[in-house]
Design goal:
heterodimer; A: mainly alpha; MetI-like fold; globular; B: about 300 residues; mainly alpha; 2 domains; two-stranded antiparallel sheet; 12 helices; 2 strands; about 75% helix
Chain lengths: ~280, ~300
């Protein structure tokens, strides 16, 4: 595999076909969102809008109250991600740096929870949240998302802390720092890349969540983006330009992650997986 | 000095044991209160005939007995296996193919290609469902338009309303959405394989296929097997994409277990039976995991 060799043409063709397979649907989504409603029902379909308009976006915000869905998603997802990261980072640090009885059992249990099909908790949560008056509230949904994300994020942070040399802690202990000080002043700054990719992971997962949000929210003013988008299809007269505009709006946070943190995200995610 | 440090560390360990509990206690509380408690509650509900409001009649193992004889449940299990098998197969083929190309040194525009190929992973499941519903639209969708322009089909096909095509249409979307994750994992694994191994294999006269079988495959095997297991478990309990494409229809053609559990509970209000089904799926996943553990152990 010397660098002088030309790249095999067949491989290049395969990659280009792969990219088309990805880009054509995405292109279709984007141009549909800029069309006027009647144009979406033209046969054959137009591959560029004859009249370029933002009407669909306006309608999605005004008629389908996407602003409110977006606000709900942001509140629930951002707060639950922050709490998850706080809890998981502490647990990851604790499990990585200290010896204590039951540590193996704790880490094993963290992994085992990954096997639970989440649907088994749908009915219990539906009942428990109603019992405590938390159904159809931001807090109720946050509790559910924290319970989903804490196990995996704990594991990811534990793996990350394991890659940071422990000598520094000992040196800091000699300098008179207590455990909390070591955590805050030494370990936390060193774990920032792992922390970032773990947060992104939790954020993406919670932003994507649909089934629990659908069951645990009942009124439009509490629904998240994914539920709001999902229920648009039940509208008797759906327009596909509105639908695609809503889809693009719903994707914006994840597309921002894609544009700005892609490398960080993937390097963090694969670091743990590849090493084992 | 070295002795000092050792002593401090040793003393530290003793002192640390309480600190360790302090650090993990918030996560431990979350696990017990927000994971274990609902889980056990779910198992308890599976022994009751309940509407979750005012009726809680203990029925013991009645629903389990009924479930074992329920052919429609086995049908939905069969659909789940089919969905899982072909989705994971398709994702694996695409992921192996693209990862092996993207890892080549002399590929032009490598970063751009990689960025485009991971893109589907960054769209929410609901968005992917809606987008493909529109693409599959019989009269105005792009999918039929392209197939007709290429002369592959004559008239419009209702991909999602036809019981013969719907499962394949859903699987195709699921492959499209999910192959990037595996591709990224494999790409990272491929980068750890030494180039010398390839050169040695080439000097020994190995062709492309032999190099793949004897160098690439063993090199990515640990990551591949872990990722495969994750993918299988994810597909087995997957709900969102299928629900947003078909809601399990037409006439139950894509009613996989996750949709079956949801409908039994929230459409028919038979929460006890719904929980029974969820517990059953839980048991299946446990068995799958045990099998994988055993296989991994016998490997090493």
């Amino acid at each position: 595999m010397s660098k002088r060799k030309r790249f095999p043409v067949l491989a290049l063709i395969i990659v280009i076909l792969g990219c088309l397979m990805v880009l054509v649907p995405v292109y279709w989504m984007i141009i549909t969102s800029f069309k006027e409603a009647p144009e979406t029902f033209s046969n054959p379909p137009t591959l560029w809008p004859t009249k370029f308009t933002l009407d669909a976006y306006k309608k999605v915000m005004d008629v389908y109250s996407f602003g409110s869905f977006f606000g709900n998603s942001l509140i629930v997802v951002v707060l639950s991600t922050l709490l998850t990261i706080l809890v998981s980072t502490m647990a990851g640090f604790g499990a990585s740096r200290f010896k204590f009885k039951g540590k193996g059992a704790f880490l094993g249990f963290v992994l085992v929870t990954q096997m639970f099909p989440s649907v088994i908790m749908l009915i219990p949560y539906f009942r428990i949240l109603r019992l405590y008056g938390l159904i159809n509230t931001h807090l109720g949904l946050m509790i559910v998302y924290i319970s989903f994300q804490v196990p995996l994020c704990t594991w990811l942070m534990y793996s990350y802390f394991e890659t940071i040399p422990k000598d520094l802690d000992a040196a800091a202990a000699i300098d008179g720092l207590n455990q909390w000080g070591i955590f805050r002043k030494i370990a936390l700054p060193l774990s920032l890349p792992g922390l970032a990719s773990t947060s992104i992971y939790a954020f993406i997962n919670s932003w994507n969540e649909f089934q629990f949000a659908m069951v645990l929210t009942t009124t439009d003013d509490m629904k998240t983006v994914s539920v709001g988008l999902g229920q648009m299809i039940d509208d008797t007269m759906i327009n596909w330009n509105d639908m695609m505009a809503a889809s693009i709006l719903a994707s914006i946070p994840l597309i921002l992650v894609f544009l700005f943190c892609q490398n960080l995200f993937f390097s963090g995610l694969t670091a743990g997986g590849v090493k084992q | 000095m070295a002795k000092d440090r050792k002593m401090i560390r040793h003393r530290g360990d003793l002192f640390q044991s309480r600190a360790g509990y302090a650090f993990i206690s918030p996560a431990f509380l979350v696990l017990v209160l927000m994971v274990v408690y609902p889980l056990i509650y779910g198992i308890v509900i599976s022994f009751f005939d309940t509407n979750l409001v005012n009726k809680f009649d203990f029925v013991g193992l009645k629903y389990y007995g009924r479930l074992i004889k329920d052919t429609s449940f086995y049908a939905s299990l069969g659909r789940t296996v089919m969905f899982t098998f072909f989705t994971v197969l398709g994702r694996t083929i695409l992921a192996v193919l693209f990862a092996n190309i993207l890892v080549m040194d002399n590929l032009p525009y490598k970063k751009a290609f990689r960025a485009i190929l991971v893109l589907p992973w960054f769209f929410p499941d609901v968005v992917v469902g809606m987008l493909w519903r529109w693409l599959y639209n019989a009269n105005y969708g792009l999918f039929n338009f392209i197939l007709r322009s290429l002369g592959i089909i004559d008239g419009p096909i209702e991909w999602l309303s036809n019981t013969d095509t719907v499962m394949w249409a859903v699987i195709l979307v699921s492959i499209w959405k999910g192959f990037p994750f595996m591709m990224v994992m494999l790409l990272a694994a491929l980068q750890t394989i030494s180039k010398d191994l390839y050169e040695a294999a080439e000097l020994d006269g190995c062709g492309v296929v032999q190099r793949f079988l004897h160098v690439t495959l063993p090199g990515i095997m640990p990551v591949l097997s872990t990722t495969l297991m994750l993918e299988i478990m994810w597909c087995f309990k997957h709900f969102t994409l299928i629900w947003n494409l078909t809601k399990g229809g037409p006439v139950d053609a894509t009613r996989v277990v996750s949709i079956d559990i949801y409908r039994t509970g929230f459409d028919y209000m038979r929460f006890g039976e719904s929980s029974t089904r969820a517990v059953f799926v839980f048991i299946i996943i446990i068995i799958l995991t045990l099998i994988q553990k055993k296989m991994k152990r016998s490997d090493s």
